[in-house]
Amino acid sequence: MTDTPTQLFIGGAWVDAADGATMAVDDPATGEILCQVADAGPKDAKLAEEAAVQAQQDWARTAPRVRSEILRRAYEIIVERTDELARLMTSEMGKPLAEARGEVAYAAEFFRWFSEEAVRIDGGCATLPDGRNRMLLSRRPVGPCLLITPWNFPLAMGTRKIGPALAAGCTMVLKPAPQTPLSSLALAAILKEAGLPDGVLNVVTTSRAGEVCEPLLRGGRIRKLSFTGSTAVGQLLLAQSAQAVVRTSMELGGNAPFVVFEDADLDKAVDGAMVAKMRNMGEACTAANRFFVHRSVAEEFGRRLAGRMGALVVGPGARDGVDVGPLIDRRGRAKVEELVADAVERGAQVLVGGRTPEGPGNFYPPTVLADVDPGSRLMDTEIFGPVAAILTFDDEDEVIRRANDTPWGLVGYVFTEGLDRALRVSERLEVGMVGLNTGLVSNPAAPFGGVKQSGLGREGGRVGIDEFLEYQYLAVPVR
Ligand code: NAP
Prior knowledge:
This protein is of the alpha/beta class. It is built from 13 helices and 22 strands.
């Protein structure tokens, strides 16, 4: 967008960093610098926190219908500007335009969903067992929040947090990932246009995440942290949040198993694999990381998947007809290269891909590896790239044990035509979400989140707003 803001958004105003610092935003398809944005330091973060704290009481008292309509208006503006927002996202993140448009729709839907939830915050009233005391229960916003988002879904990870926080009556400081600040700044401009009062949302773009966030978490004024990112950073932020007893929601990493039984419909399984692996070039927490395929169908599955993966067009996301854009940066691509090299060294067969192309941009080809050794590093590392690693199994108990043999538990995919088996296996998988004969689970109306080291709490669905509300109990004796 030609007029995309590049400054910090604090107290409803666009401002430079106090020390004048800026940081570059790169185009991952070319490696060239797209623009400079303000690079906030601790002083700016304190100002943003102050603005959120000052706005909290009024926003909490704003009628739910008013909060709802601001979200609804923002939803409409996002939908009207789908194309502009998609182009902006592709320029800073790399994903193909068609996927970026899909993300804009997904992101907008969180605002529509939570505009509907804002007016349905309920409480309760009861006569207690002694027959004398009454209990009035109301639900109140938790208070000013710190929202920290990753680069892989630059718009949707923001709306998935901002939507319920606004609906609940919370104010906030948003810190987006430094690779993709532009989508968040564009979102702030849209919310301002939709009528959001000054100070309710503040955005600090920064390359100094630790310096900016730690004082806020330890300071006692921020009451809630909602974080999406890697498990390692989530663990650090949980420790920092402990001191001021900050409530936390954590959407962390995954290591999704994708299980194909001998009775699966292989067409469905390959279609599902393409989505579960290739959505967002594999740079998704929900990406299938370990393909466990029954020995009797493994060769056929591998052959078909390699055919489909090999037919994908790799190139700059903004170019027509491109299916697979660049990875986010050189570091991300180097990690994928190392994981593939390690698997090949341990005996994996490369069915397709596996070679980094020459030239600019962080491109990596869709790759299928068969006969992967279970000891390979990519079995216990998020690949975060377009690489499908296939292992074989012989029976149900064995595959459940292997699928669960990981500290993560975000999502699992199960392909079988047997209803009994589908339910039995889904119930035994240690994950927050299961895709049954499908490679896509994300939906704003469903609770998204994981178990084990994949996180705490849920985003989206009826329960998404709960993360931003506290109960208040009023004791009323009646004589
Ligand atoms: P990351 O390195 O953990 O970073 C996520 C965010 O945290 C970024 O904004 C980052 O900023 C910030 N951050 C890092 N260190 C921080 C600190 N000390 N204090 C405050 N903020 C800090 O993750 P990523 O590489 O951007 O994203 C990929 C990860 O996100 C994967 O593990 C993926 O599975 C996970 N993810 C999970 C979900 C989910 O819903 N479960 C969804 C999407 C992604 P800097 O880059 O400046 O450090």
